[in-house]
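Hi F.,

I've been meaning to write this up properly since the lab meeting, where we talked about keeping a consistent format for the predictions we share between groups. The idea is simple: the sequence comes first, exactly as it goes in, then the structure tokens exactly as they come out, then a line or two of notes. No screenshots and no reformatting. I'm using this chain as the first example so we have something concrete to point to.
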Amino acid sequence: MILQFLGADREVTGSCHYVSFGEKHLLVDCGMEQGPDLYVNQEIPVNAAMIDYVFVTHAHIDHSGLLPLLYNHGFRGQVFATKATCELCGIMLKDSAHIQEFEAEWRNRKARRAGKPEVTPLYDMNDAQGVLEHFVSCDYHDKMDICEGLSVRFVDAGHLLGSSSIEMWITESEEGKEPQTRKLVFSGDIGNGNRPLIKNPEYIEDADYVIMESTYGNRTHEVPPDYAVELAKVMNATFTKGGNLVIPAFSVGRTQEMLYYMRRIKTEGLLPEFPNFEVYIDSPLAVEATNIFHKNVLECFNEKARELIQQGVNPIRFEGLKVAVTSDESKMINFDSRPKVIISASGMCEAGRIRHHLKHNLWRSDSAVLFVGYQVPGTLGYMLLNGADKVKLFGEEIDVRATIVNLPGISGHADINGLTRWIGAFHMPPRQVFIVHGSEESAVSFAKHVQDMVGFDAVAPYSGDAYDLITGMQVAQGDRRLVEKKEKKTYRASSSVFDRLVIAGERLMVVIRKCQGMANKDLAKFADQINALCDKWER
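Output, unedited:
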């Protein structure tokens, strides 16, 4: 029974954990890194076709974004997630594929003009659609027997619609030995609590091993202000100057929270100087995600949000709310000279329509850019938030004259106090607490905090570190090297058509091995089919 750490180890994005027992192989999350890599990451230690199951804590791309690539490389197992997570992944993975294809096309136009080699996207729409067909929807709190020796339960993590912590019971049997059972708990991203719309995180009381996030493991959030009041102040200052308020926000979660506060500003008259202000959501993904929020009221919304709906009040709709779906509708926003709020993705300004709005507004001293979420070091959002006076967008250098604002406390992640409450809810000390999904400073600091203040044995693993969960011993050490050139690995070589052939051959070998024990008649038929295929292509 092995647990190996693959992604978001001493880093914040790209979550991925590998577990093997008996002849089963599974992943918990399969996320894409956002921003530059810090450490050399370990690849999945087995062929993708050998992965039997993937369990997804929530739909954010840094936890789900490489599932289409896993499918591209031969994965055909089952992907388990909550109902809302399945629905959100249904739009987010296709949106991610569209971005991959669009950016590859844009880069290739430049490459052809410069006589440079072309690239292909990390994955395409067919890969996204293919893996979505393998999703299995789960209900909170139902303990499911996945296969012999594996049971799983999802509980609400309070981070995003459908987000979960995952309880996992694994039993491994060896001939001549007593079966051994271990309980693992994967925290996923733990919510900050008292958020609009969604419920607070649930606590878990027991585990042998805990794999826990630490995004804000060395920081406390400021005492939460009344966000609607603070937001109204920023809007008033910007509109008075005649500028636009641009809000980079994740299409799923943060955008809907912003709409909740905007509705409050309207209905409570918090901006009397500009009562008819308009808000544009410029993200087809955000529009679809908002519809999914409306479909998951009973399962995921908190009591206050449900009460509003029972009173006939939609908590995230109001007069003056407009949406831009097509690219033409998006472009027209910047031809409208009236002051307005523009909410667009991505939240870290790394891709999507937000970059166009920044290009049109960063140079304007009357406009403002408001950050309402965590910014990974190395991203454009991080650079703006930390005082960059010039940035490059679409090959053009832009002066930063707009006011850059950070609204403190608006975070989907628990701070050190919230994380401490979560891990402190365990009644008995786990055998080991593994601290992941945090910067090196945050992860190491919080691991020491758990040891000193909670009294649990805790460590911050590196990517590639592996542990035997029966003995508790470390059995492999990951690569401690820092990445020499810190850049996003978004594209693979243009020889990927041949790569597909190689991947198909590797998948065939996995299928062949799984056929052991079948009837000789069936095995002979399969062998004849393979040989006939080989004969055809050898000619």
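Notes:
The domain at 227-406 is CATH 3.40.50.10890 (Rossmann fold).
The longest helix spans residues 83-114.

If this format works for you, I'll send the rest the same way.

G.
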